[in-house]
Amino acid sequence: MLKRLIASFAKPRREPGLAEQAARLWQKRDLVGAERLFRELLASAPRSAENHSNLGLVVWEQHRFQEALGHLSRAIELDPANTTARLNLANAYVIGNQLAQGIAHYREVLRLDPENAKAHANLLKPLLDACEWDGAAAEVDYLAGRWRADPRDALALRVAPFTSLLVPFPPELRSAIAASHARRIQERVAGLERPRRAARGARGRLRIGYVSGDFHDHATGHLTAGLLEAHDRGRFEVFGYSFGIDDGSDYRRRLVAAFDRFVDIAGCSHEEAARRIAADDIDVLVDRKGYTAESRPEIFALRPAPVQVNFLGYPGSMGAGFMDYIVADKVILPEAEARWFGEQVAWMPASYQANDNRQPISDAPVARAAHGLPQDGFVFCSFNKHYKIERALFDGWMRVLAAVPGSVLWLLGGHGEKNLLQRAREAGIEPRRVVFCGKLRKPEHLARHRLADLFLDTHYVNGHTTTSDALWAGVPVLTWPGPSFAGRVAESLLRAIGLPELVLPDLASYERAAIELAREPARLARLKNKLAANRLGTPLFDTQGYARALESAYETMWQRHAGGQPPAHFTVAPRPR
After folding, report:
1. Which of 54, 160, 343, 510 could form a disulfide with 326, with the two C-beta atoms 3.0–4.6 Å apart?
2. Is the predicted pLDDT of residue 340 greater than 90, yes or no?
3. Alpha helices (H) along 99-160
4. Of 84-93, 227-236, 537-546, where does mean pLDDT reach its minimum?
5. What are the backbone angles phi and psi of residue 379, rounded to the nearest 5°?
6. pLDDT per residue as tens digits for the range 343-355
7. Is 13 within 8 Å of 41 (Cβ atoms)?
């Protein structure tokens, strides 16, 4: 997947007008046109580091990775001190999952230019991915310190908004980063033509448009397939606008079929995509990406719809005047914290998270030995990505393993494996007791949960889809909520499925509960039975009920707009079950 990092086009020393044209085409998402102009520039100056770097960046965005790495590497061969070219090479390595090389090049940029804002902004997330906790903590302290000294500090405000949600920044700083990012988006589209909407004709159904790059085998696709199918076609006409890949999966086919109209805008510029949405006369336009990988908030900045909503894909505020609402609940976003959000809040009656109660679980037999797990012994699992694993939490997990002889911790594989195993050794835990697994197709991944006894949630950033996956598969989840939206999702899910007793107030009680459940099989069995009984009888997996509540939210948003009222916070009333 192509992740969106802060990239840099350099202006070549020759023909600056052509370079500027190419950069404008890139910003408009005309990658073919930008590539053509950058190739012209390279033909006229083949030893230009800037030309190689710029061409490499555009080629990379077209997923021709090896060709792109050749140009980017050539750029720093020609000019080793060129920080812009080296930054782009670092980005390419990180996007290509070669984190060690990427981190090394970011650090070299910072050696050459210690206050390089883009290098600081892009380095933090790979450090978290690799569980390089000392380096990540140093970056957090440096960036937060600069902001405290000057709340307008441009370097601190360049941090990617999504990355800002993953670390202990103050809410004021996260809010400022989101707002700064939104301003840059608006600046990028300032020269583009705003789409013209025709006068809304008389029609009985509201038109809802979902915009995403994830209408395929992806976590948010898994969550929302059932919702899209459940929308009331008597009251709503549902459009999908996809700028992501067609992976040929069953999920892709199911998601495409779930819409009344499905429009592939992957090849469209931001301007063209906005024009198409406006021409379709969408009433409520829903962004399912926010500021995550490959997102296109520029489409929303062009205002193709009168009501625009931040929904599900991004666990924070976009800080943008072009986003009217965010869908939340009062666990993840209490009323007192709404002041840090640029959007008005639509509070759902139970959890904010959509779920699919038709999600299949493979019935193929699963065996511990096939997954590197001991036949006997307690299996703790946590299938969250490594950037969510904090040092203090991992140390707590090691204390749990030490207190439960024969137990193992089963984790998703990733870039942090080496550092996690080293930390386990330092805690006196044999590395074989920390077991890593690879990715599987979703039905098989859900099925392998049967081999685990208890899911241990992460803290500062919880499991989101990961948590609901465990609950759907029948595995109790223990959580210690964090201080923000991203860290309270598991609590929201557990309360919606009737298991608030699995929400613990601090690390010590979280560790104690994990140990007690491992030592008391009868108590754990009662929890599993309660989870099984609640699975389809509580709001979390009530897909139809969730759809009705979300539709009520859309209608309230539209009614305020149609009545000439500005967006405002509101709570969706619970519906009788």
Report:
1. 343
2. yes
3. 99-112, 117-129, 133-149
4. 84-93
5. -110, 110
6. 999 999 999 999 9
7. no
For residue 301, give every residue at least 6 positions away whose Cβ sits within 8 Å of its Cβ, in sequence order, or none.
Answer: 182, 185, 186, 188, 189, 320, 322
Q: Could you identify the residue written with the tokens 């198409």?
A: 276
d(CA 217, CA 198): 35
Could you tell me the end-to-end alpha-carbon distance of the chain, in angstroms, rounded to an integer? 40
* Cα–Cα distance, 567 to 156 (Å, whole number): 30
| C-alpha closest to that of 85 among 149, 9, 22 | 9
Which of 455, 460, 464 minimizes the C-alpha distance to 392? 460
Mean pLDDT of the chain: 94
Q: Give the separation between CA 384 and CA 410, rounded to whole angstroms.
A: 10
Nearest to 262 by CA among 235, 236, 284, 280: 280
Q: CA 566 → CA 224, 355, 527, distances in Å? A: 28, 30, 46
For residue 522, the SS3 value is helix
Burial 474-507 (b: 16+ CB within 10 A, else e): bbbbbbbbbebbbbbbbbbbbbbbbbeebbbeee
- Per the structure block, which two tokens stand in for 41? 């520039």
pTM of the model: 0.93
What DSSP line would sit under 194-242, residue for residue?
PPPPPPPPP-SSEEEEEEES--SSSHHHHHHHHHHHHS-TTTEEEEEEE
| H or E stretch at 352 | none
* pLDDT over threshold 90, residue 109: yes
Give the DSSP H/E element, type plus range, for residue 456.
strand 454-456
Q: Which pLDDT tens digit goes with each residue over 358-417?
A: 999 999 999 999 999 999 999 999 999 999 999 999 999 999 999 999 999 999 999 999
The tens digit of pLDDT for each residue in 16-71 reads: 588 888 888 887 778 899 999 999 999 999 999 999 999 998 998 888 889 999 99
The count of other CB atoms within 10 Å of the CB of residue 548 is 15
Residue 259 token pair: 């819409």
> Does 570 score more than 60 pLDDT?
yes
Contacts of 272 (CB under 8 A, 6+ apart): 265
Cβ 258 vs Cβ 228: under 8 Å: yes
Amino acid at 426: E
| Distance between CA atoms of residues 165 and 170, nearest Å | 10
What is the distance between the alpha carbons of residues 345 and 328, in angstroms, rounded to a whole number?
A: 7
**347: buried, middle or exposed (CB in 10 Å: 19+, 13-18, 0-12)?**
buried
202 confidence band (pLDDT: 50, 70, 90): confident
Instruction: Name every residue whose Cβ is closer than 8 Å to that of residue 17 and which is 6 or more positions away in sequence.
Output: none
Reduced to 3 states (helix: H, G, I; strand: E, B; else coil), residue 350 is coil
Q: Which domains does the chain have, with CATH numbers?
A: 16-114 (1.25.40.10), 206-357+545-571 (3.40.50.11380), 369-537 (3.40.50.2000)
Give the separation between CA 531 and CA 498, rounded to whole angstroms. Answer: 8
Query: From the CA atom positions of the chain, what is the Rg in Å?
Result: 24
Residues 561, 565, 571: CA angle, nearest 5 degrees? 80
